[in-house]
Amino acid sequence: MEQPVRQYDRSEAAPQATPAPARTLVIDLEGALLRSELLMEALFSSPGRMLARFGAGGRPGMAALTDILARAEIDYSHLPYDTDVLNQALAARARGETIFLVADRFADHAAGIAAHLGFDGVVAPADLVDRASVDRISERSRSRPSLKVWAQALRVYQYAKNTLLFVPVITAHQMNVATLGTTLLAFLAFSACASGAYLMNDLLDLAADRQHPTKRHRALAAGDLPISSALLAIPALWAFAVVASLCISTAFLGVLAVYLATTIAYSLVLKRKMLVDVVTLAGLYSLRIGAGAVAAGVMLSEWLMIFSLFVFTSLALIKRFSELSMREGAGLADPSNRDYRITDLHIIAAMAAASAMNAVTVFALYLSSSAVTPLYSRPWLLWLLAPLLLYWFGRALMIAHRREMPDDPIIYAFRDGASRTTVAAMICIMLAAI
Q1: Which of 256, 311, 319, 252 is nearest to 286 (CA)?
Q2: 55-90 burial, b if ≥16 CB within 10 A, otherwise e?
Q3: I want to staple 78 with a disulfide (CB 3.0 to 4.6 A). Which of 106, 152, 174, 210 is the partner?
Q4: Is 102 helix (H, G, I), strand (E, B) or coil?
Q5: What confidence score (pLDDT) does residue 365 get?
Q6: With bands split at pLDDT 50, 70 and 90, how would you rate the model's confidence at 135?
Q7: What distance in Å separates the CA atoms of residue 207 and residue 229, rounded to the nearest whole number?
Q8: Distance from the first to the final alpha carbon of the chain
Q9: Sign (positive or negative) of CA dihedral 171, 163, 352, 287
């Protein structure tokens, strides 16, 4: 007998699984997502413009400054975000979760960051309600900056430039314990002063460095070193430099003050002026030699200063050539914080070569003068230095042309094997000539 077909009512169907409620991920902007302080980012997004607005605002005080910082132009695409937090946010987005930033100040900047990253919006801490469907990333494990990070930020490797302070002592043949000890203290004072200046320069160049192919890895630009820590370190370094200088002489302190003032002027204005930056850099290198003479109390040779001026002008031009050629190789536009164009490469290379050859010519004239005889018993050996100088300058120009010199030429000389060998040969020749 045929069985009747039973009609099932929809209400009798097997129970369906209830979909899980959509979850929400909230991320603290400061302390979790951003590897920096938003207040400091606003302040150093364009320091000159911020000061101009503050001076023209007519409403002095913290409220006026806060209002100006709230309207600062921050490049959200180059801020130092925490990679792990961003990856968690992307994974949450793939699961269909909504994502909000938590910010208790600078709401407009927070909204701009959220829009740039594709998040759903911004909430204030007071608006958060503890719910089962809300996940929050409120902080990430942050350790104090390591010694390696500090060494990078202070540019310890740049201290090699300050060995120029020992040049007057060596060339005057005054290498005794007293003069070497005083010069060593001068070296430490210059190094501390330079580190403070480097930190200040990095703060002023924060936005430009983050768009640079290599400078974006600097400690401040990458968020490895907090801006507030750098602001505390700068006066501490300069205070040490002043105390060390006073232990030498007031004259040396005066030279160091000129160096610092010139460095600050370079960071604020001069480095943005075509060729003025090159002359300033050459002058700062030569000033180190003059400072070494003042610290040790030795006479400074006019030949040495003229030779140094041409040498360091050539090196400064090679540095600019390397920076521009790297930008050209990376397909980048003309630098925004330098008054140079990539099309200037050929003239910069020509000027660097001419200055290097002038330095060798001055050295040859010095060897032909009567100033050599009192200092060297075998001055004819010094003529062997001329071909070594020609070789080193020519090689430096060739390496820069091949885009194989990413560093400052002086720093490169300390790292390059052929350069170290050349310098060692020069020292041996000078010792043999004494």
Answers
A1: 311
A2: eeeeeeeeeebeebbeebebeeeebbbbeebeebbe
A3: 210
A4: strand
A5: 92
A6: confident
A7: 18
A8: 127
A9: negative
